[in-house]
Amino acid sequence: MESDKIYKFLDELGEKMKLAGYKPETDYVLQDVDQEEKAKSLCNHSEKLATAFGILNLNGQSSIRVFKNLRICGDCHNAIKYMSKIVGVTIIVRDSLRFHHFRNGYCSCQDLCDLVIIATLLDLTCKALSGPTAKGIS
Ligand SMILES: [Zn+2]
Ligand SMILES: [Zn+2]
Fold first, then answer.
1. d(CA 125, ligand 1 centre) in Å
2. What is the number of the ligand closest to the CA of 39?
3. Alpha carbon of 73 to ligand 1 centroid (Å)
4. Cystine design at 33: which of 37, 50, 98, 137 (Cβ 3.0–4.6 Å)?
5. 13 C-alpha vs ligand 2 centroid, how far in Å?
6. If you average pLDDT over every residue of the chain, what do you get?
């Protein structure tokens, strides 16, 4: 089955990633389960699966595109950096905020995503704070 193939591939890839220094960031999993379970459920994130699927179906192409309608989580971001290095392909992930170009273990966003998030949150807070007041003035 296709999905079995993807999970098996992710397992193998995970081993290589660990050897290369990857550590699953279990903080991103909210369920109250033990570390091993956490590591497992992280593996099931759609962007990791989509990337594994893309790698398995490369057909000679040198890049993979993954689209996600939510923001990519920190662990997947980290994991995909390792994947791009191990597999030697460019992985382009479009999440709710921006494009991430993963190549040779680095991402184009240089992990600035968190700053963008903070800026967005600040902006929203400012709008929320200024909203009623601005209405009152006009
Ligand atoms: Zn994730
Ligand atoms: Zn990025």
1. 26
2. 1
3. 4
4. 37
5. 20
6. 79
Backbone angles phi, psi at 100, to 5 degrees: -115, 120
Q: What percentage of the chain exceeds 90 in pLDDT?
A: 44
Q: From the CB of residue 117, how many other CB atoms can be counted at a distance below 10 Å?
A: 12
Ligand nearest to the CA of 93: 2
Q: What is the pLDDT of residue 99?
A: 93
DSSP code of 88? T
Share of the chain above pLDDT 70, in %: 65
pLDDT digits (tens, 9 = 90+) for 27-86: 665 555 566 665 555 556 889 999 999 999 998 899 999 999 888 988 899 999 999 999
Nearest ligand to the C-alpha atom of residue 47: 1
Going by DSSP bridges, is the β-strand pair 99-103/106-107 parallel, antiparallel, or unpaired? antiparallel
CA pair distance 13, 99, nearest whole angstrom: 23
Q: How many helices (H) and strands (E) does the chain have?
A: 5, 4
The pTM (predicted TM-score) of the whole model is 0.69
* 6 CA from centroid of ligand 2 (Å): 23
Residues at Cβ < 5 Å from ligand 2 ion: 100, 107, 109
Secondary structure (3-state) at 66: strand
